[in-house]
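User: What would this chain look like folded?
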Amino acid sequence: MSRLLAEPAPLDVAAPGGVPRLVRMGRREHAVRRIFARWRVDADWWRTRVDREYWKVDLGEASVCEIYQDRLGQGWWLSRVYD
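Assistant: Here's the prediction, encoded as structure tokens.
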């Protein structure tokens, strides 16, 4: 099962070379233990453009999460949490 957040939550992500390695949620830091998937969404260029790079990552005790980087300069976001 997974839970899609109604509104994505902002994250602070350390991503050397563009690959997420450390995710800060509030006051807690979680090392990325494993990357399960990576994909890119580049759509709606004729309206409000969306350009995001999604990552499905294992954060250990924080569980598996889906995060994305808004490639239009809007930072990193948490969008889904898996049980």
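The CA atoms of residues 34 and 62 lie 13 Å apart. If you want, I can go into more detail on any region.
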